Amino acid sequence: MSLTTTSPTFGSRALGAIRVLISPRGAVFLLLAVLLVSVTVLNPNFADPSQFIRFIQRVSPIALVAIGQYFVIVSGEFDLSMGSVITAQVVIAGNLIGQDESKSVPVLLLMIAFGIVVGLVNGLVTTLLGVPSFIVTLGMMLALLGGVFYVTGGSASGNPADGFREIGRGGIRGVPVFDIIPWAVIVLAIALVVAIWISKSPFGKTLIAVGDNVTTQQFSGVRVWWVKTRAFIISALCSTVAGVLLVGYAGVHPSVGRGYEFIAITAVVLGGVVLGGGRGWVVAAVAGAFALEALFTLLNFADVPSTWRDTIQGVIIIAAVAYSAVAFRARRKTRTPQASPISGKEPDPDGDPAQSAHTQQNHGG
Amino acid sequence: MRRSINTAAAIVGIAAVVALAGCTTDPSVTTPTNDPPPTEEINWFDQAVFDKQDAERGVTPEGPEGQPWLQYINAEFTDTSAFASPGAKKVCFANASISNPWRVTGWITMNQQLKVLQDSGAISEMETRDAQDSDDTQIADIDFFIEDGNCDLFLISPNSTAAMTPAVERACATGKPVIVFDRGVLTDCPVTFIHPIGGFAWGIDTAEFLIGNLEPGDKVVALRILPGVDVLETRWAAAKKLFEEAGIEAVDYFTGADPAEIKKIISDELAKGDVKGVWMDAGDGGVAALEAFEDAGVDYPVMTGEDQIAFLKKWQSTGITGLAPVYSNFQWRTALLAVQKIFAGEEVPKEWILPQKPITASELDAVLTVNEGMPDGHYATFGGEDLPGYPEVWQQRIVP
Amino acid sequence: MTTTTTTRPRRRVRLDSTVIVYIALVVVIVIGAILVNTVGRNFFSLGSIRDILTGMSVLGLVAVGQTVVILTGSLDLSVPYVISLSSLIAAETMRGNPNNIAQGVLFALAFAAVVGLANGLVVTKLKVNGFIATLGVGLIVKGYLDTNYQGSAGSVPAEFQFIGATGIGPVPISTIIMLALATVVFLFLKKTRTGHHIYAVGGSVEVSRLSGLRTARPVIFAHVICSVMAGLAGLLLASRLGVGSPTVGSQGGYDLLSIAAVVLGGTLLGGGRGSIWGTIGGVAIFAVLDSVMSAIQFNPFLKDVVRGVVIVAAVAIYTGRGLERRRTRFATKEVKR
User: Fold this and answer.
1) B366 part of a folded domain
2) Residue A101 falls within a domain, yes or no?
3) A42 vs B22: CB contact, 8 Å cut-off?
4) Within its chain, how far is the Cα of C140 from the centroid?
């Protein structure tokens, strides 16, 4: 008996692509497409390449924190401190660089070191002391914010030298078609490539496995504490880079970065990543960030009173997560071992997202 | 498969609803509750107060020359001889918060003024309880002072108007003098209520400036920090009315003072069309607004900000047509000076209306020279030039 | 000859987590009293005690509700907005008229119950994680608040303000009400079937389901209880403020602080284990901390730093004592993370 494999026809490939789009994994891309089209309908200028690239520029910080939060959530934890890390880094940049451009590089190194330390503390207290990450990062958030305000006296000393701000604000000018390629877009592209590489690396796979079932990993000899701590360090570094971009884009102000952790969690969840870990695709998380910002832009263009924004955001995130959860249950019931849309990965393990909160207690979530 | 198609359709449907939301006139489609129609909702526009403040703008303040923190407008004096008594007094200060740079500047100035009054023997100490922007906490703070504070006087900067009224009334009921400054309350039992002219005057000053520099049909983007804060709402209420009457198209957004948010809002507005003017209800984040114009490569707008140093510096360097309204920061000094007057038996205005003069282009350079070296979050009308520690204390901005 | 030595397995004395919280509370009080003394005040004065007990009332109500929800393994982040809107509904219905008090209370609590029901249904029927579900519902309510209310509204008649303002000696009536309600919820959890089911579902959904429990009901119940407690907190705040306010809920940071108090009190964030009295202890610790820091005129920015450190340190102590680890059935030694 021979196994015949037929190479996929174009039709079945297209069907597969559509299936991806409709699956929870892919739904965020569909949502993103719909939103972008809607925005363009309301404002045709949006499709102009130079405008569009500016849109990507302003999503960059959000997409970066989504990447960082993705790694933490996929390992089964939470990082609520991202926003205050951004604020702290922004203020550090403002206060230490001042108008002296030569200080840019040393301060940048200091900021990276600070980010690593924060990530280490978050990770170690969560894993070695066993405190739920929700609590650790909440405590870190309170401590950082209070500390930042204390040091700055409630307000920042002002925007640092233009050279440092160029990263967030400027770009390669005179480019055909796009007119300008902002540095922020390049930074995001690099970050995304690195993130994909990490998620395909053994560390990345172990991370997902740890999020899925920590006991198995422990018995497999994985040093769970080091794996999770590295996820927290990645998250803090992502916040740091987002902070650098925001210093450029927005300037130094104590309210910069406020609420970013919730935006990040929303983006990640929109991207179909399950809270509680064990499942998710980093590109989908980034798409979630884009979708969220596209939604806000749409609301701006549609002249929806800004006070209704929150309501719409609430409805969308419930809808997105409900869709994920309901669709996964449907899949579980059909029990066909579908090949996953992303080549090479195992079919999705059974998982009732409502139960994921309970699995958290098994690994200190 | 059917279910996932259904749910995909739901997602498309939701997105469509979102897109169409702009077209519906009744946005209450998503109201989750069925509660009685809101009554007694505060409509911030009050014609009587509007006219009063409009008139006050034109009045020359009385009082010592060159010391605006001791000047007053249209004062009706109240007799304080009942409170006159010698000796250093203890002040109990219930502060709403120091959570924004305006309040921090005032707090620093107040503490320097306190030193002067302590040296002169008028005040023995000032105990402060910071409510961190919470009504509930401030009520508890005032009650604590009443019960346990051994206070000779209650000094209150209320967090919000209606909610703090019962607590202020309780403080008055102790028989000790009560001073209220900055935001007001709905009772006139305090000995004096210290504040600059008011939000309507701010709105009139700024709206008239913009209207005078723009044409009917021009677009103004109004950047507002938060809803529901009375000193901010009155500013917008007045400006909005004047914009409507003058045919200026004004759209308002809430920004939370987040510069990133401000930039996005302005960028989106610029993508929709020309923006000729920017109005802010407080100056925090003004620099980001101007940068958004720079990034888009369009002409600067006509802009009103506030007397925050960051905005003033940007105004000077870009040369925009601008105005800096003020919410006189020196009222934090006046509050303590009133304490001294009350215990000395000197009469004070029942409603101490302080001057509120916007900074115009001609005054800009002089103001920035006086405030040289001050950090970006400092406010130019801090009124502390003759206090000890000038200028280092404000330059270093260490919060007491 | 072989000698056999039998060693008795060393038993660790397991202190109930609630006892630990109260020990911590005593420690905090002692340190606080000393600190307060150094600035010349008396920690145990009437005014100070009243301040602490008042500070416990509102957060206590919210935290008790949050405990019930966390016991089922879920979470409630919508509480600040429920609090605000309840205060508004109550104040606007009452409109300063004492005859409307009952109606105002009823409408406010009915609204809160509806939100709780919505939360519960989204969590159980739509299978959305509690974090996201209540975050979403909270945002929906927030949008409604921001759009329709630009400032405080309504007015609470003096008779109702009575509750928030007076007390028996140093003990405010609001604290007594809070403790009474805490007792009711405690008895509910301990004595009723639904209460036991709440623990069961929190412990393990699968086992509960296989045991024949309808796992949705206790969760929905828990969410309704939590929102109703938040509604009660809103009523209490309306009584204290004399008006309804759209921001009073967010001003107090009640969402994250209530969760912190619950965890401080020894309840597991994953559900299945915890006690109401532990939560009350956690709330008391926060109230004492706040009062002490205000009395010594601690820099307000540093207050948050202290709160953050205390929360993390306290929970670290619990897990250090092995309280958070589930009793493994067959393993002979604790599996290290």
Assistant:
1) no
2) yes
3) yes
4) 22
Contact A54 B14 (CB under 8 A): no
B245 found inside a domain: yes
Are the C-beta atoms of B199 and B220 separated by less than 8 Å?
no
CATH, residue A105: 1.10.3470
Q: Measured between beta carbons, which residues in chain C are less than 8 angstroms from residue A276?
A: 129
Contacts of B390 (CB under 8 A, 6+ apart): B112, B384
Does A325 contact chain C (CB < 8 Å)?
A: yes
Q: Which residue type occupies A12?
A: S
Q: Are B277 and B301 in contact (CB under 8 A)?
A: yes
Is the whole-model pTM more than 0.90?
no
CATH number of residue B332's parent domain: 3.40.50.2300
Parent domain of B145: 58-197+328-357+381-396
Q: How many CB atoms lie within 10 A of CB C158?
A: 12
The SS3 call for residue B92 is: strand
Domain containing A41: what range? 25-363
Q: C63, C71, C19: which is closest to C273 by C-alpha? A: C71
Task: Provide the residue type at C155 as one letter.
Answer: S
Residue A203, CA distances (Å) to A227, A286, C236 in order: 7, 20, 51
Q: How far apart are CA B179 and CA B342, in angstroms?
A: 10
- Contact at CB, B160 and C240, closer than 8 angstroms: no
Half-sphere exposure of A71 (CA within 13 A, CB side): 35
Q: Are B330 and B68 in contact (CB under 8 A)?
A: yes
- Of C143, C260, C311, which has the smallest distance from its Cβ to A308's Cβ? C143
pLDDT per 10-residue tile (average), chain B, 400 residues: 43 39 29 36 78 91 92 92 92 92 93 94 93 92 91 94 92 95 92 93 94 93 86 91 93 88 89 90 86 90 92 92 94 95 93 94 93 89 91 86
Q: Are C232 and C66 in contact (CB under 8 A)?
A: no
Chain A CB contacts of C303 under 8 Å are: 146
Query: Nearest-5° angle of CA A82, CA A88, CA A92?
Result: 145
Beta strand extents in chain A (DSSP E only): 171-175, 179-182
Distance, CA of C130 to CA of A166 (rounded, Å)? 41
Nearest chain A residue to C259 by CA: give it: A135
